[in-house]
Design goal:
By secondary structure, the protein is α+β, with helices and mostly antiparallel strands. It has helices at 3-22, 37-44, 49-62, 113-118; strands at 67-69, 72-78, 81-92, 98-104. A 4-stranded antiparallel sheet has the order 1-2-3-4.
Length: 121
């Protein structure tokens, strides 16, 4: 994607973000807002094969994401996940594995974690 196209895509996603705030759908859940399919396709056109394939699989399963930038797609409250993020840029590790999919679920902590961990006898 050339610099002009990147800026154009960034502006579109920023406008979408502003629209989300104005419409009242700026909650962390983002449930009332989805990115336009044409914008998602434009973003994915420049992605490497592996993250693009995963993103397309998530699009089939969960529909359009709630947020998008040129480098990531984000779904909120999809299935068991509180948030799912697919990134264009792969994080390389020493083990030759690549990461570009991140998910997060609800975390439930005890009211007093010290009490629950120190009660072992």
């Amino acid at each position: 994607m050339d610099p002009k196209d990147r800026v154009e895509t960034l502006i579109k996603t920023k406008v979408s973000s502003i629209h989300k705030r104005i419409s009242g759908n700026d909650s962390p859940a983002g449930a009332g807002y989805q990115v336009e399919q044409a914008d998602v396709e434009e973003i994915l056109a420049e992605w490497p094969a592996a993250p693009k394939k995963v993103a397309e699989s998530l699009l089939e399963r969960y529909g359009p994401p709630n947020e998008a930038t040129p480098s990531q797609l984000i779904w909120h409250n999809n299935g068991p996940w509180k948030r799912t993020v697919v990134t264009r840029d792969e994080a390389l590790h020493n083990t030759s594995s690549q990461e570009f999919l991140y998910t997060g679920g609800p975390h439930r902590w005890p009211m007093n974690p010290v009490d629950s961990t120190t009660s072992v006898r």
